[in-house]
Amino acid sequence: MLPRAEALDLLRSHNPEPHLVQHALATEVVMRGLAARFGQDAELWGLAGLLHDIDYPLTKETPERHGLVAVDLIGDRLPPEAVQAIVAHNSECTGREPASLFDRALRCGESVTGLVSAAALVRPTGMDGMQASSLKKKMKDKAFAASVSRERIRECETIGLELGEFLTIAIEAMTPAAAELGLTR
Ligand SMILES: [Fe+2]
Questions:
Q1: 154 Cα–ligand 1 center, Å
Q2: 185 Cα: distance to centroid of ligand 1 (angstroms)
Q3: Which of 40, 114, 117, 124 has the maximum number of C-beta atoms within 10 A of its C-beta?
Q4: How far away, in angstroms, is 53 Cα from ligand 1 center?
Q5: d(CA 181, CA 165)
Q6: What are the residue boundaries of the HD/PDEase domain, all occurrences included (predicted)?
């Protein structure tokens, strides 16, 4: 398996902007949290989270290629199930439907990072003490983090997680990484 340090170097070589790296790192920790919840391979799920948007800067103008260019960049460094999850995370454009637990976890897992990050940035204590219940309220406010797809977050139900539990997993995964994620105040 691709060593994590090499994966991070690969990511940084294509995603130099700090906010893109932070989104990748946040997705990594959430995917590790979800893997732990489901007894899956945390290393593999984490790497898929870390690299899922690696082609983002290259596909900004061609969203239908987002996920497919990633396959070229990753090559054979990740196993097929991780590559499939990365392509299916953009199924709306790639047409590759999410099929496995892994695929579905990556879709909701990468989306929830935006909600948690936005909430941390408006809280006086950042990530500290964040509760799922307050995130649920924020989800109902359409103006809050408007670009974050609520529908995608609610796809947690497709992997058998009730929204509150899913949000708690995301909070618990991201809290210890708050400094690295740029979420400390
Ligand atoms: Fe993403």
A1: 16
A2: 24
A3: 117
A4: 5
A5: 22
A6: 16-86
- Domain that includes residue 142, residue range: 4-177
Is residue 106 in a domain? yes
CATH code assigned at 16: 1.10.3210
Asked whether residue 127 is assigned to any structural domain, the reply reads yes
Distance (Å) from CA 166 to ligand 1 centroid? 17
- Domain membership of residue 164 (yes or no) is yes
CA distance 49 to 44: 9
Residue 93 lies in a domain: yes
3-state secondary structure of 126: coil
Q: How far is the CA of 158 from the centre of ligand 1 (A)?
A: 19
Whole-number Å distance, alpha carbon 20 to ligand 1 midpoint, is 8
Going from the C-alpha of 125 to that of each of 56, 98, 119, 150, 183, the distances in angstroms are: 31, 36, 10, 24, 10
Element (H, E) at 62: none
Report how far ligand 1's centroid is from the alpha carbon of 52 (Å): 6
